[in-house]
Fold DUF2135 domain-containing protein.
Amino acid sequence: MTRNRNNSTVSFLDLMMNSLAGFICLFVFVFMMLIIKSKMKEETDKNIESAGLFVITVNWNDKSDDDVDTYVRDPAGNLVFFKSKEKGLMHLDRDDLGTKNDTLNEDGDEIAVKKNEERVIIRGIVPGEYIINVHMYAKNDWGPTPVTIKLVRLIGDDQEIFKNEVTFWNDDEEKTAFRFTLKADGSASNFNTLPRPLTPARI
Ligand SMILES: [Ca+2]
Ligand SMILES: [Ca+2]
């Protein structure tokens, strides 16, 4: 009888120990999963943050069929535009052609993104003067085409630093939207619109 009771006690203790071990394993597993998930989120956030330090946006009427091109020259002389989409620490995300590349026909259905915008991302700082030009590659609409050019800081909350508007009337017009000086600490200053051609045909 005593022996049976001892056996029952030992079995009960084994069960408790096994349950405890199982619980600890489960706890450690969940804890590790939470750490891994947290690390992955941190990496994702870091990637988003490091995608760019500044963006230059160029917008014109979304219904317009005009093809405006963006040119950005960094202090090292690197020039980004539709034929050279990545140079130095800058890249142009796409060449917007007006309405031509805003639609896609998929199985007879039209998918449209009516947007006229070009964006140049500055991923790292080259200290010195940046020049931003816009060029009317193809003036297909009647009347003037106002174009808005902005410099936006992407670190933390997006912050518009500078904005200018230029107006085009004809094919092949080129205008300096603005220049600015970027310092190593990320500060931007000396904004001005002193003209300087950047299109290959003019330099
Ligand atoms: Ca374009
Ligand atoms: Ca477009």
